[in-house]
Amino acid sequence: MDDSTRLTSSQSTKVFIQRDYSNGTAVRFQERFPIELEGRIDQNIFVHILEEINKIYDDAEQLSFKTFMENCCACLTGYLLLLCMPTHYEKCVKKAAHYINEQNEHVLNRQGILMLDPMEKGLRCVSNPKDKNARC
């Protein structure tokens, strides 16, 4: 949204999608549709966006031979390797941020919704304010 269509914080509605700790402490967000967004966006579209974000963070948390070797090489180099290349987790976090920006641009902004990257809030929640002054 450009500045001419942005609402003031007194006019905006802030909706927080909280973390889902039902399966442990892995980064995962609740896939329930918030009632505050009813009538503003199709429930299936919004839940699909949350599912995709959860899939990206699930991939980041997965243990694989690649992440095992990444950590072993980092340890052997005194973690200097991490200064030269991004980790699998960092790549997934970037992928999630890119996906959220893409969804904002193509889907959510048209409905008057702006989804903020959860990394900005310490991975505590995904927020959906109309402005960027939301707090988790």
Automatic annotation (TrEMBL):
Q: What keywords were assigned to this record?
A: Endoplasmic reticulum, Membrane
Compartment(s) of residence: Endoplasmic reticulum membrane
Pfam families, A to Z = Erf4
Topology relative to the lipid bilayer, per the entry, is: Peripheral membrane protein
Q: Which InterPro entries match?
A: Golgin_A_7/ERF4 (IPR019383), Ras_palmitoyltransferase (IPR051371)
GO cellular component terms, semicolon-separated = endoplasmic reticulum membrane; palmitoyltransferase complex
Cytoplasm: present as a keyword of the record? Answer: no
Gene Ontology biological process? protein targeting to membrane
- Sequence ranges assigned to domain Golgin subfamily A member 7/ERF4 in this UniProt record: 15-126
**Quaternary structure?**
Interacts with ERF2.
Similarity annotation: Belongs to the ERF4 family.
Protein name according to UniProt:
Ras modification protein ERF4
